[in-house]
Structures are given as structure tokens and as C-alpha cells.
């Protein structure tokens, strides 16, 4: 039986197995939504309950080996069945996770206990903040979604300075009890001072033991009054083994990291009865710090690993390649905890040598191979020659090379004449294509295996620092898999001495000093890694001190340190860099940092970018490399970034070379072609001659008379007499097809395409796309060609062209010949009128539309800096409406990243962690926060702008940032000092994406304040806007000066409207010139 038949039989067998497995699922198709704790749910529906663990996979693989030669079909069918069970589990876990992110479960977690107690934080800090209304709505939703359907006995209490229960004892769930609880959550619950969490836990513990409650949920939204040590001592008493009661701590949208840290440490006392649930309304990522979600993440990660391994191994069996039972396509078959030994015999040689991209490019880069575009052109380039001629008083440029060669602009701004042949450019393009292929191959090589995590190990002596802190418990298996790949693929082949140090709890090394790489030492290292667990925090400084103690400069002259971590170290960046400099004095070492972001991490882009910037600074301080990656992709790598920059340069050179080839081919096609209208017929031959030859008379009275001078005089007189005869000689009229030597560029008639809807771009960008220049509405090219002008002759009659076409003299001593048809002029006038009408619509939209009251947000990140000083009190209600409109209609609709900063004499920041993505929930929270602002006190503009620039500097690493300063008065500090400080801070920011400051003036205009705001926006390439209360419609013939003064956007539109008006006046003038027919 051949392989094709086996494959078909295997496919049929898989279909039968899938059909068999789908029949019993109808009985419990919603078993993923059972109202039980996730730990209990996994006990019924997890990997072990479904018998798809690593032990089960081992059993299947043993059967595969025993049946390998006997019955291949049975072996493939067994793997199909095992794979189907894994996919069934993945579906259930994914549905369970999505179900937990919906409704009140997203806020409080699963509350499915029969006898439930609820303790709510009623401190002033929570109930007097903007979160009060949101908390009340969430509690009412919890009552309807989970408590009413699943709970039998219910008890509610609040804690502040004192504990206030709703009822004296728990009540059975009835309609009256639910209505009473709903009224309490919505209206009656009042704030009560401080945050005495210990008193609330004490009350719930007493009630729970007295009335046998199954679960107590504690909602915490502010920092407790007690220290962690006091809470830990008392909460430890809640762990009663005789009558276990589940405690669920909910961190409700608390941006103070101390609260979540205290609750997390409390739940670590007993992970079987204490649970943590975190909630933030900005995104669904906050819930991923919860214990239940982390359990699902671990289950999902293990199931995915098994599914990937089984699928790849099954494909190997179907293809008949069953030799690699231990490893399939470089991925371990079993998780790290189930692999006892390293598979060193399967390591294959690499495609490239182990070296950094910087060293590799020094030998294989564009410069090294002399493939730089301008480096290739240099031997064939000639600079433009120019000389100053005293007799005519100006500089004269050589024309010979310019006519026979191609002009290319160099990077330094100079233009050179280049003489090349096509075979040279074709050969260069071929070499460039090979170089691009080599770069892509190396980039792919760097993204495979352990090089994706650690990069390429280039040192012979290596120390690996592994972050095994308590936060990495969910990803411990992944970290061990990374180390396994590193030991097998790089350390075993390229490193001579190595060591591994575990960072977490107590810093523990594998060996007392660096050990020589042997098969025995590698196996010993792997067993040591398998035995390690997670504990403590990221004490990187202690690990570096241990490295300092174990290294000897005489034995190890240079060492490479490789740090694998998932977060910021305990120490400050400055302390670590200073210690690394001290360490480099003793021994030459480079610290390479690998920053791993697990899937369950919930930090937003700004927090991750800040951590990455800190780790990158530490790595670069010692000349090391930085790698930032996730389980699915490589975000940033110094090695890859250098290659990507080289690849971008290669592609740019390829485009330049293709353009140069096209120009040479066009020049070749034009050789030997005669134009229908010669230069002499057009009267343009005199223009092409040097100026020294066009002069009619030269005064030689001051020149000494010699035989040479007399000969030159005679030659010049003869040439001038010949020119006069040619000018007065009558010419025979002949019809020509075109008037200029290069042919006229005719403008298409009525083909302009303008957008109907308004685009959210700046006026400068809008004019660049749809202005007069873009639409090619140019009167000069329609009226005359570039060579159809010549100086008027003093002692000569009109030339033939002047007799055939009407003439105008817009400049002295220069004639233009008007040869356009009336139809072309009418079409031009009609097109300009259409464009001017569309410009007027755009202008009125900028003046009157609610979307543009504070200007158009054009950047991908917007930071609104709002003045709430005392002078803003009259404008603040209207300003709140405008800000709400901007957030709702521009920022949220386009899913931008944003933040709001309010300032008077203090700075108030809506999102303390930095700009976040504009979801509907986040936008509603931001609008609610803006509505709660009150106007009072002074105007501290300087500190507010510095805070906005610090946030913008982090976000500008990934996207463009626009800061929108909204104010009505001068800052408390002087205008000059404020402007200088802001500009100095702006200059210090070095980011790949632009940061613009857009200023908005509210209230009455003041010249000095308006000048300050305009200067600030002009320096940062931003825009100025005036939020004027009196707005009116403007026509193209109306008060355009008022419209231009409203903002920079309107000023650019008004300027273009005036250009259209001037163009229409000129067109009407040319239209009024009578056409001289032939024979008149």
C-alpha cells in the first residue's frame, strides 16, 4: 500500500474519530460556562480530566514506537484521536476565558457560591471620586447576573472608618431582598471616611463562621490604612482547615500599585482558598493578572505546546520521516519538566557564524562590498564646473557635460554629472538583489530557536542570568524551554566555559565558577534547571555582585552576560549602570538583555515601552545588545534592527538604480528624433547661446589696440551684421504642430477629482493632495511653452511667431505668445471655480463643524492639556462639551491612543500610567473625568507641558504624538522662560516619530499670548487654533481675513482661495485677448 493510500485512509479515520467525538458533546455544550471557580472547573474539564497530559502523550509515543513497523495506520489514527481531544480542550478553555471577560465576571470574577458574603470599600477616596457611579452600576449588574440566579443566602457590608452592614444577618434571596440590595447599591451606600480593611475582614470572618458562608468577596478600591504585616497576621487566621471559606479579593480599578501588591501578597498565604481578581475599565488586559485567568493561561499554554508537537509529529509519520522521535522541527516533543536529558546529537551546524550584526555588516554590508549607490557612481561622476567672468559680472556654469550626461543629486546636496552605460547598472542591480536575499536570510536565521530569545552568543565565556521571580510562575515552563534550546543549540557548540545564575529569592549559581562545556556539564545544568522553581523578586544587583566575585580577570579576560527577564529589576537603572561600569574596570564584560513579555501580562504600550527603554539603557551602557520579544513575535532586537536598516538602504538604492535605468532608456529612445518646430522658427536660438554671444555691442575703447584685438573686432562686426540680415529677412509661413522645442504640456480638461467627505488631515496635507499644483491647474503651461519667449529686438521687425499669435508683455523686454484655444481657457476657468467652491466648503467645515471646534486631530496619539485655572471659569462649561466631542467623534472613532492632563497650580492626570487606547469604556471614563473638573487657582503651564512631553517621548517610539494645549491666559512664570524651557525639553527628545504641539486659544485674544502660542506651535511644526465663540459662514468673496486669523488650518485654505482668485483674473485677461486669424 503506497503513501497516498495511507494518507487517504488516515484522513477517513480522522473524520470518523471527529464524528464520534462530537456526538456526546451536545450534552454539555455549555459546560465551559459553569458558575464555579476555575480551579474546580479545571478539575472536571482540564488536561488531566480529559487525559491529554504529557504522561498520556508519552504513552501514545511508546505505542507509536512499538507499532512503527507493524501498523502505521493504527499509529496515525491514535495521534489523530489524541490531537482531536486537545483541540476540544482548547476550544473549551478559550470559551471559558471569553465568558469570564463578559458582564460582571469581568469586574468581580466568578461568584457562584450558594452562601455569599460581599464586603465593599466605602472610603472617601473611592466613593467621592469619578469611579463612584461606575462602581454602583457594576454592583447592580453583579446582583442581576450572578447573585440572583445562583446564590441562596446573601450578606452585604461596607467598610470605611467603620463597618456598616446592610442587614444584621445573612438573608435568603427573595425579590424583596434583591430590590433592597439594588436600592442600597444605587442610592443608599454612602462614603464613610478612611479605609479600615482589617475591621471589615474581622466582621466578615465572624459572620462567615457564625452562618457558614461559602465565599466572601472583598472589593478594594483604595489603599488600606493598615500595613501589610498587620493584615497578613490577621488574614492568616482566616485560613481555617476545619471549615474552609473561600476569600476573593477584587482590586477595583485602583491605579495605585501598592494596593494590588498588598492584595497579591495576601492571596499568596494560601493559594487554595485565597484568590485575587484585578479589574481596570480601560481594557480587558487588567483581568489577566487575576489568579483564575492565570490558571487558564497556564492550561492553554500547555495544551498549545502539546497540540503543536503532536501535529508536527503526525505530519512526520504521514510523510514517512519517523527518525526524529525526540525532536520534531526543532521543537521539544515533551514540556521541559518531562524531558530528563538534552538531545545534543541532534544539533546541526548553523548557516552563519556566531557574531553580532555589527561585525557581520562590517564584512558583508553595503560599504564592505562597495554596493553603496553613490559609491558605485563616484568613478563615473563629474562635478559641475563654474567660473566667475569679470566682464559680464556673474558666474557661468559649464553646459557640455549637462547636455551629454545625466544629473544626479548627491546626499550632501550637490549635483554631479554622471556618465554610465546600461550594462553597469544591470550588473549593480543583480549584485544588490543578491545582497537583499542574503540580508533576508540572516534576519530569518536570527528569528529562529534560541537566537530569537538571546540573540547570537558571540563570546567563548558566557554567564546566563535567569529571572525566576514569583511573577514568572505562569511562564516557568516557557523559560525552561528557552534555556533548553540555548544549551542544545548554542552553548554546546560555540561556548567554552559557562555558568547559570537563578535570580529570584536567593541568588543561586549553578557552579561556583565558570565550568567547561562538556556533555556531562550540560546534562547537569539541565537537571539543575528542571529542579528550579519561582520565588522572590528580581534582585539583579545581587546577581551582578555574585558575577564579580566568581570571575577572575587573568583566567577569563572577557565574559558575556545574558539576562533573561520579564520586567524591571528591583534597582534603579542608574545604580545598575554605575555598577556595570565598575565591573568593567576589573574585567571586560557585556550585558545582553532579553526582555520577554508573556501573554498574561496586562501592561499597556506605554508601560512596556518604559520598561524596555530602561533595560535597553542598561544593555547599551556596556556595549551589549537588547532583545524584546513575546511568545509569538520579535518586537525589537538590536541585531535585527541593524539588518533592517541595511535592508531599507538596499531597497532605496534599488529604487534609485531603477529610476536611473529608466532615465537612460528614455534618453536612448530620444536620440536622433527631430522636433516639428525648430529653434530658429521659434526665435529661441538666441536664448540657448551664452550671454556673451547675445550682446549686441561691446565697448573696446578702454582696451589697448593690438593686432589680436583688431581681429576680434572684425569678427564680432561680421557676426552682428549677419544676425541683423537674418532678422529682417522675410520668412515663408508654414504650419507647425507644436510651438516649443520640447512640446507643450496640455492640461486635461475637467478631470479634477475632489473628495465629497471631509478628511481628518491637516489643511497643509489637504492642499498637498487637492490644491492647484496637485490638480495641475497652471495657466502658464496652458498659455505658453517654456521656450516660447524671447527678448524683443531693438532694430528689427516683428518675427513670424508674433504675426501668427497674439502677444503680451508681462515683463519688460520679454514677449510671450498666447496660443491657447477658447475651449481650453473655459475648461480651466470652470475647473478653478469647482476647486474654489470645494475650498470654501472645507473652510466652513473647519469654522463651524463640531468635529473641528478644537482643530482636527491628525496624529495617532493625542494628549489634551487643559487649563482649569480660575480665569477659565466662564469658558469651562463650553470647553467641556468641545473636549467630549473631540474624544467621542475623533479619538474614540478612530481608535487613537490618548490621555488628558488638567492643570491650574497643580497637575491632574487622568491616566497616570500614560496614554491608553481609546475604547468605548475608556472614552466614557475620560469624558466623566473631564466633566468633574472645576476651575480655580493659578496657571502652571510649564509643568503641565513638561509632563505631556515626557509621556509623548515614550509613545513617540511607536507612533506620532500630538500635544493639544488649551488655555486662555498667560502662565504664572514669564512667557519667555516658559517658551525657552519647553523648547529646550522638546530639543532633548530624540524619537523616530514626530511630536507636534498644537495650541488652542480660548476667550478674548491678546497679542502677547497669541504670539507665544503661535511661536510654540510653529517651532514644533504644529498648528495654532482659536476657539472663538462667534462663528459664521464664509464665502469665497466674504471676509477671508477674519477666517484666516482663526487658525493655521483656515489660513492655509484662505491662501489657496486667493491663489484661485488671482488665477481666474489672469485667465479672464487672456480670454479677453482677440485671436489673430491667419491672413489678417
Automatic annotation (TrEMBL):
UniProt cross-references to InterPro entries, sorted A to Z: VWF_A, vWFA_dom_sf
Residue span, VWFA domain: 118-269, 461-602, 863-1025
UniProt-listed Pfam families: VWA_3 (PF13768)
PANTHER family in the record: VON WILLEBRAND FACTOR A DOMAIN-CONTAINING PROTEIN 3A
Name this polypeptide is given: VWFA domain-containing protein
The species this protein was found in: Mesocestoides corti
Amino acid at each position: 500500500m503506497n503513501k497516498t493510500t495511507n494518507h487517504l485512509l488516515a484522513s477517513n479515520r480522522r473524520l470518523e474519530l471527529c464524528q464520534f467525538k462530537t456526538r456526546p458533546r451536545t450534552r454539555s455544550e455549555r459546560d465551559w460556562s459553569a458558575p464555579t471557580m476555575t480551579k474546580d472547573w479545571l478539575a472536571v474539564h482540564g488536561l488531566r480530566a480529559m487525559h491529554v497530559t504529557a504522561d498520556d502523550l508519552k504513552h501514545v509515543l511508546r505505542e507509536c514506537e512499538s507499532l512503527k513497523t507493524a501498523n502505521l495506520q493504527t499509529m496515525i489514527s491514535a495521534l489523530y484521536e489524541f490531537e482531536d481531544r486537545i483541540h476540544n480542550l482548547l476550544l473549551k478553555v478559550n470559551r471559558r476565558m471569553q465568558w469570564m471577560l463578559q458582564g460582571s465576571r469581568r469586574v468581580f470574577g466568578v461568584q457562584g457560591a450558594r452562601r455569599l458574603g460581599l464586603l465593599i470599600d466605602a472610603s472617601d477616596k473611592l466613593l467621592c471620586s469619578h469611579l463612584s457611579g461606575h462602581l454602583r452600576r457594576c454592583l447592580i449588574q453583579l446582583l442581576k447576573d450572578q447573585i440572583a440566579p445562583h446564590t441562596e443566602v446573601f450578606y452585604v457590608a461596607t467598610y470605611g472608618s467603620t463597618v456598616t452592614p446592610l442587614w444584621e444577618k445573612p438573608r435568603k434571596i427573595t425579590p424583596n431582598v434583591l430590590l433592597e440590595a439594588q436600592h442600597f447599591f444605587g442610592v443608599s451606600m454612602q462614603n464613610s471616611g478612611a479605609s479600615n480593611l482589617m475591621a471589615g475582614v474581622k466582621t466578615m470572618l465572624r459572620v462567615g463562621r457564625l452562618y457558614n458562608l461559602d465565599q466572601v468577596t472583598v472589593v478594594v478600591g483604595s489603599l488600606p490604612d493598615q500595613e501589610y504585616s498587620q493584615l497578613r497576621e490577621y488574614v492568616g487566621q482566616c485560613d481555617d482547615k476545619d471549615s474552609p471559606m473561600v476569600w476573593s479579593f477584587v482590586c477595583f480599578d485602583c491605579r495605585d500599585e501598592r494596593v494590588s501588591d498588598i492584595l497579591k501578597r495576601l492571596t499568596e498565604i494560601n493559594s487554595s482558598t485565597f484568590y485575587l481578581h484585578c479589574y481596570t475599565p480601560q481594557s480587558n488586559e487588567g483581568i489577566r493578572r487575576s489568579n483564575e485567568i492565570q490558571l487558564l493561561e497556564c492550561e492553554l499554554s500547555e495544551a498549545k505546546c502539546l497540540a503543536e508537537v503532536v501535529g508536527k509529529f503526525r505530519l512526520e509519520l504521514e510523510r514517512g520521516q519517523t527518525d526524529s522521535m525526540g525532536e520534531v522541527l526543532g521543537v521539544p516533543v515533551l514540556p521541559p519538566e518531562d524531558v530528563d536529558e538534552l538531545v545534543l546529537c541532534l544539533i546541526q551546524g548553523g548557516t552563519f557564524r556566531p557574531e553580532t550584526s555589527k561585525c557581520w555588516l562590517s564584512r558583508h554590508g553595503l560599504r564592505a562590498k562597495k554596493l553603496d549607490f553613490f559609491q558605485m557612481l563616484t568613478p563615473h561622476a563629474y562635478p559641475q564646473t563654474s567660473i566667475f567672468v569679470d566682464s559680464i559680472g556673474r558666474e557661468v556654469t559649464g553646459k557640455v557635460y549637462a547636455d551629454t550626461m545625466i544629473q544626479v543629486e548627491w546626499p550632501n546636496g550637490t549635483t554631479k554629472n554622471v556618465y554610465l552605460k546600461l550594462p553597469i547598472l544591470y550588473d549593480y542591480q543583480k549584485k544588490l538583489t543578491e545582497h537583499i536575499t542574503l540580508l533576508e536570510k540572516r534576519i530569518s536565521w536570527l528569528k529562529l530557536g534560541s537566537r530569537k530569545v538571546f540573540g547570537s552568543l558571540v563570546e567563548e565565556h558566557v554567564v546566563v542570568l535567569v529571572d525566576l521571580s514569583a511573577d514568572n510562575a505562569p511562564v516557568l515552563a516557557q523559560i525552561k524551554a528557552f534555556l533548553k534550546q540555548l544549551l542544545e543549540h548554542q552553548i554546546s557548540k560555540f561556548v567554552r566555559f559557562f555558568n547559570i545564575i537563578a535570580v529570584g529569592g536567593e541568588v543561586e549559581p549553578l557552579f561556583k565558577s565558570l565550568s567547561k562545556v562538556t556533555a556531562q556539564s550540560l546534562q547537569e545544568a539541565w537537571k539543575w534547571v528542571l529542579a528550579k522553581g519561582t520565588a522572590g523578586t528580581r534582585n539583579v544587583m545581587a546577581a551582578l555582585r555574585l558575577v564579580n566575585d566568581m570571575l577572575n580577570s587573568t583566567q577569563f579576560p572577557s565574559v558575556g552576560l545574558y539576562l533573561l527577564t520579564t520586567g524591571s529589576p528591583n534597582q534603579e537603572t542608574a545604580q545598575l549602570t554605575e555598577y556595570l561600569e565598575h565591573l568593567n574596570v576589573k574585567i571586560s564584560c557585556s550585558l545582553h538583555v532579553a526582555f520577554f513579555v508573556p501573554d498574561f501580562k496586562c501592561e499597556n504600550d506605554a508601560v512596556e515601552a518604559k520598561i524596555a527603554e530602561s533595560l535597553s539603557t542598561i544593555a547599551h551602557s556596556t556595549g551589549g545588545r537588547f532583545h524584546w520579544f513575546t511568545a509569538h513575535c520579535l518586537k525589537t532586537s538590536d541585531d535585527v534592527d541593524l539588518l533592517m536598516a541595511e535592508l531599507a538602504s538596499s531597497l532605496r538604492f534599488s529604487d534609485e538604480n531603477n529610476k536611473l535605468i529608466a532615465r537612460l532608456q528614455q534618453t536612448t529612445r530620444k536620440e536622433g528624433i527631430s522636433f516639428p518646430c525648430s529653434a530658429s522658427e521659434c526665435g529661441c536660438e538666441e536664448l540657448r547661446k551664452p550671454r556673451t554671444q547675445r550682446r549686441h555691442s561691446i565697448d573696446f575703447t578702454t582696451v589697448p589696440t593690438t593686432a589680436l584685438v583688431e581681429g576680434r573686432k572684425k569678427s564680432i562686426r561680421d557676426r552682428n551684421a549677419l544676425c541683423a540680415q537674418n532678422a529682417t529677412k522675410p520668412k515663408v509661413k508654414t504650419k507647425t504642430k507644436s510651438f516649443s522645442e520640447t512640446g507643450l504640456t496640455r492640461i486635461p480638461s475637467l478631470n479634477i477629482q475632489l473628495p465629497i467627505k471631509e478628511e481628518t488631515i491637516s489643511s497643509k496635507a489637504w492642499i498637498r493632495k487637492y490644491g492647484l499644483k496637485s490638480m495641475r491647474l497652471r495657466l502658464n503651461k496652458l498659455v505658453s511653452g517654456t521656450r516660447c519667449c524671447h527678448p524683443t529686438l531693438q532694430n528689427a521687425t516683428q518675427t513670424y511667431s508674433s504675426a501668427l499669435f497674439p502677444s503680451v508683455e508681462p515683463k519688460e523686454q520679454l514677449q510671450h505668445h498666447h496660443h491657447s484655444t477658447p475651449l481650453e481657457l473655459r475648461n480651466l476657468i470652470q475647473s478653478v471655480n469647482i476647486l474654489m467652491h470645494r475650498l470654501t466648503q472645507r473652510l466652513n467645515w473647519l469654522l463651524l463643524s463640531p468635529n473641528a471646534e478644537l482643530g482636527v486631530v491628525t496624529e495617532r496619539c493625542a494628549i489634551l492639556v487643559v487649563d482649569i485655572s480660575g480665569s477659565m471659569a466662564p469658558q469651562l462649561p463650553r470647553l467641556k462639551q468641545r473636549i467630549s466631542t473631540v474624544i467621542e467623534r475623533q479619538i474614540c472613532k478612530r481608535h487613537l491612543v490618548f490621555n488628558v492632563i488638567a492643570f491650574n497650580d497643580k497637575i491632574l492626570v487622568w491616566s497616570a500610567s500614560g496614554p491608553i487606547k481609546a475604547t468605548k469604556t475608556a472614552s466614557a471614563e475620560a469624558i466623566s473625568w473631564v466633566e468633574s473638573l472645576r476651575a480655580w487657582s493659578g496657571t502652571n503651564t510649564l509643568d503641565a507641558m513638561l509632563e505631556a512631553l515626557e509621556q509623548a517621548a515614550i509613545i513617540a517610539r511607536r507612533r506620532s504624538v500630538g500635544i493639544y494645549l488649551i488655555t486662555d491666559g498667560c502662565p504664572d512664570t514669564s512667557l519667555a522662560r516658559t517658551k525657552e524651557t519647553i523648547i529646550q525639553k522638546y530639543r532633548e527628545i530624540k524619537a523616530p516619530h514626530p511630536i507636534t504641539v498644537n495650541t488652542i486659544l480660548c476667550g478674548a485674544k491678546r497679542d502677547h499670548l497669541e504670539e507665544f502660542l503661535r511661536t510654540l506651535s510653529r517651532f514644533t511644526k504644529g498648528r495654532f487654533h482659536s476657539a472663538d465663540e462667534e462663528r459664521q459662514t464664509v464665502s469665497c468673496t466674504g471676509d477671508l481675513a477674519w477666517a484666516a486669523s482663526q487658525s493655521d488650518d483656515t489660513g492655509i485654505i484662505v491662501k489657496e482661495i486667493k491663489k484661485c482668485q488671482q488665477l481666474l483674473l489672469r485667465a479672464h485677461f487672456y480670454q479677453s485677448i482677440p485671436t489673430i486669424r491667419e491672413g489678417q
